[in-house]
Amino acid sequence: MFPKSLVLLFPLVHATWNCGVDPDTADLEQQANLTVRDVKVTALMTAAKALHANRNDVVYTQGDKRWNGIDNKKMPPACPKYSDCSSAVSWMYWTVFGPQGSYPWSKDKLNGQDWKAGYTGTMTNYGKSVSKSAMKRGDLVFYGGTKSVPGHVAMYVGHDKVVSHGSDPAGCYSVDYRSDRIDIRCYFDCDSDEAEEALV
User: Fold this and answer.
1) Per-residue buried b or exposed e for 142-174, using 16+ beta carbons within 10 Å of the residue's own CB
2) What would you measure as the largest C-alpha separation in the chain, in angstroms?
3) How far apart are alpha carbons 17 and 151 in whole angstroms?
4) Per-residue pLDDT for 5 more than 60?
5) What gap in Å lies between CA 153 and CA 163, rounded to an integer?
């Protein structure tokens, strides 16, 4: 259980959000009964919403600039100026679990690169595979390539939607907007075990 004031630690982005569960419209009475996972997910959804709200200002690149959101410590409602699919979801996770986040991990459990690098192939070394029926908001959905080195990643935001920056502009799509979905991974507070206990 969390007091309502704790939820206010996460600045919400005020923009139209037609993708997933809107963190701005959560019932305040329910917020008093939030679990730790709920608070983490609300913060992740706030970052996803910031990326989506600023989608016309974020430039897709696979170059070094893609880490500028983390390098420049951008927090929602701001977002990275440049990103690709893996750096976009890394940034979203960094806003919650990085050294500046509300629930900092002792190490980078998404890429294992101290929040300085990574790609879809490093992400598959961490977390836990889950079924589509078991996926929860904040889980990552992988597409194409191979199961160990997928070609693309997006974040599940609820209502059968993902936020993705696989090309310009970043977008909100159905989970199965691509026919080559190959994995869904949970990285924190997974049902049967903590994802961090499953790390390699």
Assistant:
1) bbbbeeeebbbbbbbbbeebbbbbbeeebbbbe
2) 44
3) 27
4) no
5) 9
Residue whose entry in the numeric block shows the structure tokens 């070609």: 151
Q: CA end-to-end span of the chain, whole Å?
A: 32
Q: How far apart are CA 30 and CA 34, in angstroms?
A: 7
Domains annotated for the chain, with CATH where assigned, are 26-198 (3.90.1720.10)
Query: Angle 166-159-93 (CA atoms, 0-180°, nearest 5)?
Result: 50
Q: What pLDDT, in 10s, does the model give residues 129-188? A: 999 999 999 999 999 999 999 999 999 999 999 999 999 999 999 999 999 999 999 999
